[in-house]
Structure formats: structure tokens, C-alpha cells
Amino acid sequence: MPNATASVGPTRDATGSVDTVPAMNQTLAWLVWAVCMAALALTIRNPLYLALIALATWLVHIALYQRSSLGQSWRGLVKLGALVWLIAIPLNALMIHQGNIVLFRLPAHWPLIGGPITLEAVIHGAVNGLALWEVLAIFAAFNMAVDASQLLRMVPPFLYQAGVVASIALTFMPQMLLSAREIREAQRLRGHKFRSWRDLLPLFVPLLTTALEHAIQLAESMESRGFGGELTGMSAQASNRLKGRMALSLLLMLVGLFARSYWRNSAWLGLALLGIGVLLLVSVFAAYGHRVQRSHYRRAAWQTRDNWIALPALLALVITLGVAAFDRMALNYYPYPPYALTPAFDPWLGLVLTALALPGLAALYEGPPVTAEVTP
Amino acid sequence: MITLEHVTYAYPEAPEPILRDLSLRIDDGEFVLLVGASGSGKSTLLRCLNGLVPHFYGGALSGVVRVQGQDPVQAQPRAMSAHVGFVFQDPEAQFVMDTVEAELAFAMENHALPEATMRKRVEEVLDQLGIAHLRARRISSLSGGEKQRVAIASVLTLEPHVLVLDEPTSQLDPQSAEDVLTTLQKLNVDLGLTVVLSEHRLERVVQYADRIIYLPGHGEPLTDGTPQDVLRQIPLAPPLVQLGKALGWDPLPFTIKEARQQARSLSLPERAPSTPDSSATPHDSTPDIVVRGLWHAYDGHPALRGIDLTIARGELVALMGRNGSGKTTLLKHLVGLLQPQRGSVLVRGLDTRQVPLEQLVGLVGYVPQNPNALLFADTVAQELAFTRRNHGLPEQDVAELLETLGIGEQAERYPRDLSVGERQRVALAAILAADPQIILMDEPTRGVDYTQKEALTRFLQAERDRGRTVLLSTHDVELAAACVDRVIILGDGEIVVDGPTRQVMSQSMVFSSQVNKLLRDERYLTVADVLGQAL
User: Fold this and answer.
1) What is the pTM of this model?
2) ipTM score for this prediction
3) For a surface tag, which of B128, B423, B483, B489 has the fewest beta carbons within 10 Å of its beta carbon?
4) Is the peptide bond before A107 cis (omega within 30 degrees of 0)?
5) Are A223 and B154 inside 8 Å of each other by CB?
6) Domains plus CATH for chain B?
7) Omega within 30 of 0 (cis) for the link into B114
């Protein structure tokens, strides 16, 4: 019986990539991991702590790269991150002219970039760029770990349609790239050469129309299978009331923001208005969500292995934020005088951030899915 | 039950209705085949059954449509999905989720079915369609036939009474197509599911149908009845039926087995001891294409393994084999799009590794599988002019070429508005406008009806007689039987068989025409072969 073994573990297809997807519960665990990691990377500026986060992300990358069928595409995002990092360094160095260690000077009359170029600015640019790079790498690792369609199932009902649109957009990209190649080949064989912008037309028009036709076919297929869910009936009156509530909530939020910015003395009033507005908006969304009736196939239970993915990141975030609440400078790093060029390092915080490597190590220990069964 | 009463429908901004005053009735449990020339409105009629027409396309619909007591126009496709399952032509374009199981659950989730019900139905449908082993697979890793079976499964989970399929096998190789069709027949017989299916290649499907509805197009009234009745009246017929009609057989045979009984009365001349095959001799023995020890691998996975092949000038050759057997990869080597990783490819003495692509494309015309990859201009005539300009050729009247391909009237139309079959021929014309010496075609008969196929056959033979070398990769056994001199069958990147069409077909079980399967004699591949000889 071929189906007796098929659902046990993922299998590899002929091209060596894995053609099955991770379980649902893993998706939520990885989502927690990604959000916490990204929050850490965005709040911490100390290069030593950032390096620990980078190490943890890198471990996840090497563990998951082989498993993901789109590993190669997502690795492209990491390369893009490297480019961002390389751009951030000269950008900061050219714009910020503070610091004692002057590398060289640009003529002072040059607007913006004129003045001393300092080692401190170079280092600060590198640290800021590193944080951005890490966020992209975390996003890439998250996408290697989970599956777009699994993610789609976690979208709350009122955002469901938007979620589907987003997930289709994601799957559309690889298809677009494929048809772009097909079109370029076909036109080249027809003697098409690229000389001026007008020569883009024979490539662009088929690409656009193919994508549109594809989108229409997909939309037809979704509509024919009841996409959009069962809408429970709603009277015109009820619908108008809901719209009115939404307008009111947005207005409250706007006034709240305004109040907070302009009446500095009574910031609490602005905050309160903002809070009421947000609550009202959530209630409107919930009402819309109730109208869409959907159910979920296979809601999986949280398992021990999911703890290993989500908990270290969650704990690290809580502890780090706690430390930051007591000591603002603990996570920050300013290479400019009067601060020291060498970053501070708290071994306890370092230990907490080292624990972020656990998910990557766990995934590496599990190994590639095919050999998972033979691991003792 | 499905009823249509006086249905007329026109697409928005169309000068005239595509369906005019159409009335028909389909009873529960029938297997109905919808046939008609390409562009006759088959897809439109099918889309009326679940409300995609007019809800998705707009336009004006009049008359009454009832499906299982529901009015699709009022109920909208979303609500109709519980009654009508709809499967589309392109296996690639209809999936929403990544995995088979998730795809199967998609429709049920939309209908908010309880989890326990969903689990049960997924299991049932997986077993009904024999795809339980695919449940955890990524859809992108499935073959075309598997994808179509998953597409059928994904609509069956809602337990509809009617299954509507718009040319579901047009992109599949013969074996995958048969897998899909036998699945449909099983569903029809076992579950009493009403099946409404449109298809061009009648030889694949006519044996399963209880009834045929023929849509002539241009608003003319339809022909409706048992396959026996309808096939006697309409111009479209698979080879066995053509033979039966010509020889006055009654009933008309739909399967080889049925035909065999009738063929006993057929007296054919005794087989001559050995007839040399004259058709396989090319006009010229100068080698046009020489392939030696060609290897090619994608990401370390061999697609071609040591191909040796010589094609002489003026040969008309068919390249056949399963999906994924290496046909397209080989064609791409012959035009220089891919370069040999090992071995060599010489085209008219030019080594494809040494001459630039620009020089080769002046010599070799390549018509891709998907015509949409080529078409971009505002009119058909402009498409042809574009190719000539690219090759630095002077402007030329293209009316004759278009006429030969049966698209003369379409010269000033927007290519994308044409039917699939017409687009295919526009793409062909766009390549041939540069008058290449060697013509390569990838699956030229997708979505093409019998009349158009005959025109293509005549055209290809005329090109060969002009001394052009033609190589076509195709699943279409009947096309190959009707026009090519030589058949090459690829299997897993290797040449398995290479020989004169008559010899190859009479010795193959799969790659053989209906007439040849019936008579198993290399003198008879087509209906014309038999009629020319029958006493």
C-alpha cells in the first residue's frame, strides 16, 4: 500500500528537493520565533549582541536551506541584505561627521557629505546595517521554515481575503519569472534584439497578458470552489451601522493622535482616545469576521518540539526588554565620543541571547528529513 | 438535472452572441460530451452551468438556466460550488494551496464544514481517485495527469451532483489522459455523478460518453443525441468513426474492440512480401541536423543521455514520448537555446556551440508550445511583419501564408482575442514569416480541432515538399500518422525507437494510430490508407 508510508515523513522528489511541507503547528512556532527575533534585532544596537543573533539566524539557515523547496530564492534575500549592509556603511560615513578618529576629509563646501570621514561613523553604519541585514535574514529563514499556504490558514477571518491575495502574490512571483524566461527565449528565437526601450514591448506585453490570464483562471477556480466563504445575511441597516462604527473609530484614532502631538500636557487624553478608537475598530473587524463562516482543516496541537523553536526567542525578548526598561544604555551602542568605541558586554545577557541558537541546533540535530528516521 | 431554455449570451462588447437561443436538458447520471470547433462557445456554455458566465465575465445573458433546481445566475458561482464541480483546462493555473491535502480541503473550508466531515471526505475522495499516495505532496511536484486528478478531487469534496470539465486532458500525454478519463468514467458509474466534458480529441473520450452535444458555433442550432446519431451528422469524427462512416458500418465503432468485429467484413489486399517504404525516403540525403552523443542535465539530473540522431534535408519527423522524456530539451538544443554539456549538435554544418544564436535563428524557426509567449502586436499581420523586420527581411504580403494556415480572415484581428487553436496558428505563421529552412514545432495541436489539424497536415507536407526540414514534438498520434515520414520515440532522455512511421507505429502499443491498432498492418495508418485499398 503506497499510502501507508506516504504520510509519515516528507519525501524527496527526483530533483532532490523536498516535496512535502512542514506541519501546521510548526508554522505558529516559527512565527513566534521570527517576530521575537526581528524585535530583538530592531531594539538591540550592541554589535556583540547582534552578532549572537546573527549566529542563531545563520544556524537556522543552514539547517533549513536543504529542506525548503524555495531555499535558493530566499537565500537571494540574504544576499540582498548583504548589499543593504554594504550600502549602509558608506551612507552613514558620508553623512555623519562626528568622531575623533578621522580617516580622511572631503572638501567642506560639498553639501551633506563634505567634512571629516571618521572610523566611528563607519562602525556605526556597519552596526545599523547589520541590524537591517539580520531582519531580512530572519524573514528569509522564516519563509524557509514555513509554507505560504500554511501561513494563510492562520489569518483571522476578516483578513482572510486579503491573506489569500497576499499568498497568491507570493506564489505568482516564481511563475512570473518562469514565464518571463519562456517569453524572452521565444522572442529571441524570433530574431528579437534589444536595442531601445521600444524593444521592451514584445517582452512586456506577453508577460503582462500571461499574468493577467493566469490570474483570471485562478480567480475562476477559487470562485468555483466557494471562495469568500459563506456570508451570513446582513440587513442594509446593520451594514450601515457597521460602516458608521468604523468611521467613528478611525475619527477617534485620528483625534487621539492629534491630541497627543499637540496637547503635550494632557497626553493621557490622546492616548485614551486612541485606545477607544482601536478597541472600536477591533470590534468592527470582529463583526465582519463573524459574517465570514469558514472552518479549518487539521488544527494541530502544540508539541514539545515547537517549544524549542518558540520559547527561547520569546524568553530572550522578554528578558532583553526587561533589561532595557531598567538600563536604557544596556542594549545601545554609540561609538561617538564621549562613549567608548568598544561595546559593553554583559555576560548574563550574552548567555540569554546565545540560547537563541537552540532552534537552529534542534533543527540541525533533526537533520534533513530523509535521514530523520535513521538518527539514533 | 440540468436544463437550458432559450439561452442567449454575448460577451461584453462582442458584436454578436456566442450562444444563441440554446435549449437542452441533461439528466442525472449522464456522461455528456460537448464538442465543437475551437471558438464555438464550448467553454462559455460550460461556464453557464455554475454561473461564472455571466457573473465573472459580465455580458448579457437571457433565457433560463437550471442546475439541480438552482438558478446559477441568481445563486452565483460561490453558492453553485456545492452543486457543480468545475475543472479547468490548465492543470497549472487552478491551484490555491501548496499541498494536495490542503487543496482538497480548500473548498470545504470555504463552506465552513466541520473538521470531522472534512477529514472523512478527504479520505474518501483520495481513495475514490486513487491518489492517496499523493496526499502530502507539494502540488508543484506532481505530473500533469496527477494534477488533473487532484483538481477533480478538490471539487469532489463538496459532493456535487454535477462535474463540469473544460478540456481537462488537452495538455496531457495519451497515457495520463486515459488515467483521467477512466477516473471520470468510474465516478460516473459508481457514484452516478453527472459528467459534462468538452474535448477536441474525440478518439480519447467518445467511448465513455452517453451523449454528445455538438456546438457548431456562429449561433447555429446544436446537434444533440447519442454518440451514434450525432457522429453520423457532424463533420468532427475520430478516425475509427470516419472509417465506419466511409464503409457504412452500423453501429459506428468507438473502440478498437468494436471496430474489430466490423472489420472482419473488410477485405484488404494480401500483404506483399515486403514493401519498401517509399514515404520515408527524404528528397535529399544531405544531413540537415546531426546530433552526436548529446548529454544534458538540469541541476545534475540528466534530461538527455547520449542522443545520436541525423535528420536529412526535407524530412518530416515526429518526436514522441511521455511528458518529461526530453523532447523539448532536445528541440531547444537544435535551435541553440541550450548548448550541449557533452556531445555536439550540427545544424546545416554549423556547430551550435560555436555560432551565435542570431545566426541559427535565421536558419531554424522554433514554434514554442505556448503561443502566448510570442503574441504581443495589435494585429495578426503586425506579428508577421515584426518577425520579418527582426530578420532584416523586406516587407511582404502575408495573405497567402495566413490563408494556407486557415487564418486569412483573422489578419486584422487582435491575436489575443482568438481561440487557442487560432493563436497556435498565428504563432506558427509568425515564425514561418521569416521562411526558415528548418522548422521545429513543440506540441502544435493543443486545442486544435480536426478540421484545423487536417489543414496543418497539408501545410506541413507542402513545406516538406518545398525542401524544408520539419521536426515536431507531439503527443498527437493521429497527426503523426497522417503526415510524418519518420517517428522518433524518446524515453527518459534516450532514443528508444527511431524509424519510418509505418514501421514504428505498427510495432508500438501506445504510439500507434487507431486505424493501425485495428488492422496491425504497416500499410494502414490512416483512414485514407484503408479507403485507398479497400475492395
Assistant:
1) 0.76
2) 0.85
3) B128
4) no
5) no
6) 2-236 (3.40.50.300), 287-517 (3.40.50.300)
7) no
